[in-house]
Amino acid sequence: MRRESTRKGFFYRWSRFTYTMRVTACFGLIAAMTALVAIGVLSFVWDQHFQSYTKENMQSLADSVATRVADIYRETGRLDNNGEVIAVAKYAESLSSGAGIVITNNLNHSIVYDSAAIGSGIGLTGMNGPTLAPPPSAAGIETSNIVVDGVAVGSVRVWVYGSDALLTHTDEQFRDQSYQAMLIAAAAAIVLASCIGFLFARALVSPINRMTKTAKAIAEGDMSARTELHGEDEVARLGETFDAMADSIERDRELERRLTTDVAHELRTPRMAIQSTVEAMVDGVFEADEERL
Fold it and tell me: What is the mean pLDDT of residues 257-274?
């Protein structure tokens, strides 16, 4: 019972708005729903596809570092205490904001480079001390082996600080800016749709208002009032039909007036004859016999 009462109250309040306001609100609501669907689709794309894209980027970065380090190993024959390896690692780290890199020597199980090492030895070779790097089995890590002559002499691990989805700071900025752009676009779409709805409603209501004014004028006695609507759309044809009806009513009123005038004229002649005969009988000019009566 309460729900039905609430529903009736809503429809009552809704019916109190003008047709223009209702159409404008409907256009704005449609634009808002479309924007919400678009934002939902974008969120799905970010969750499903962009994460795959960022993982591929991190894997590509790890493969690139591993390939470059393998070339250096072929030239120098070592990984530890090799400034070229550290230079390659630092350069790769600078390419991706927020990314961390660990290069491991599989031959002696030492750390060649660790961007997350704690202390003064950050990035130095041979560091096996405290580190903030996640373990190799943790989620959100991409690994690539340093393969030389078919032997994995080392490995490269790449991750992003604070993101299991491997979203770098630049990626997160791009994502946030995308959402902001979508919200701005949604607000602009709602405003634009509301304006279009308002103009559309006014264009639709204007001929209806003209017909209303014309009907009121005819009701007040102005039989010459017309809508003067012409066109091929439904409202214009309704206006033309209304004007044709008004023409028919005006002709009927004119015929009625003429009929009344003619009847009055036709009745006046015998009435005058009757009146003059009666007056003559009253004055004694004519005898009030059966024939005259």
Answer: 81
